[in-house]
Design a protein that fits this description.
The protein is of the alpha/beta class. Helices cover 36% and strands 22% of the residues. Strands 7-6-3-8-9-12 form a 6-stranded mixed β-sheet, sandwiched between helices. A two-stranded antiparallel sheet has the order 1-2. The termini are far apart.
């Protein structure tokens, strides 16, 4: 999809710490009925099971460092003891980090809605003591970066930082073949998990992507969170009869008429309605999210709560 606006500056955070704190407080308020009243607790005990050692990664607790093992490697790298905590579920957010999501209008990129959705889902997982992980993908639905599921707010913040910094794995290096996201999901999930796929779904091969996600839904609870991005295509009127547009994904240019240029937002809306229809046809639930923070967070929290109630019934 062609974009008419430049990408927002990478130095401006999509979600800052104060917004994360506000989202967390909002979730605590909306979810308080799970911790009040006479009913069975949805939480399990706090037991930790040692599963092995690995190289230290950003976001790891200092207390988990195995100093004895690290001394054998001269502390380069540090060695971390890895534990698994009993939890109710595993949630892996699959988030769109393609170049087009860095575009927008008035300094607000499409990625802001996606990042806030990741934050709301991640902090909901913290509330329920669930493990939370992240996989980001490009416009070809190939993995860009990934963080394995773990418990705790620090890990959610690390995942947000991973998304906001637009990091890529070695799979995206020249001469290597990027891993398809469906393969990455299967590699990250050891048991039945919730998999929210967060994107604007302006993908060139969206039919294939929806069908592959439908197959994964046979094993996991896959649902779509579609960012309403019509705001990014509500472009100012142009006096010229023909306008040259630039596609940030492919680097190509295209000349469109003034009438077609003015209908850009309308066409995006029609495309997203088409995606919603594909989701229904493939038995995938879909929830729309926008830039209005309170409306978006209310929608996401209510949706997450409904899915959890469905799970425990």
């Amino acid at each position: 999809m062609a974009q008419a606006k430049a990408a927002a500056g990478a130095e401006v955070p999509l979600v800052n710490l104060s917004e994360i704190a506000e989202i967390e407080l909002f979730i605590l308020k909306r979810m308080k009925e799970f911790t009040l009243g006479d009913h069975a607790s949805v939480f399990k005990g706090s037991g930790f099971n040692f599963v092995g050692i690995r190289d230290w990664q950003p976001g790891d607790r200092v207390s988990s460092i195995d100093w004895a093992q690290s001394s054998l490697t001269n502390f380069s790298p540090l060695i971390t003891r890895e534990f698994e905590q009993d939890s109710n579920a595993t949630i892996v957010a699959v988030a769109d980090a393609s170049m087009s999501t860095r575009c927008g209008v008035n300094g607000v990129p499409i990625a802001a809605a996606i990042a806030r959705s990741v934050a709301a889902v991640g902090l909901s997982a913290v509330f329920f003591q669930d493990q939370f992980g992240l996989i980001t993908f490009d416009d070809q639905f190939r993995q860009m970066a990934a963080a394995r599921p773990r418990i705790g707010k620090p890990h959610v913040i690390y995942c947000l930082d991973l998304y906001q910094q637009f990091k890529t794995t070695d799979a995206g290096a020249p001469g290597t073949r990027a891993q398809d996201v469906t393969t990455a999901i299967e590699g990250h999930l050891r048991k039945t998990s919730m998999v929210p796929v967060i994107s604007d779904f302006l993908l060139p091969d969206v039919e294939r992507v929806i069908k592959e996600l439908s197959l994964i839904n046979g094993l996991h609870d896959v649902f779509l969170m579609m960012a309403d991005v019509r705001f990014a295509y509500q472009l100012p009127s142009a006096s010229a009869g023909w306008i040259e547009t630039f596609d940030v994904e492919t680097g190509g240019t295209r000349v469109v008429s003034r009438r077609e240029f003015a209908r850009m937002a309308e066409r995006i809306g029609e495309w997203q309605e088409h995606v919603a229809g594909l989701a229904r046809d493939n038995d995938l639930d879909l929830v729309r999210v926008g830039l209005d923070r309170w409306e978006m967070e209310t929608t996401l929290v209510e949706f997450a709560r409904e899915r959890r109630l469905r799970k425990f019934q």
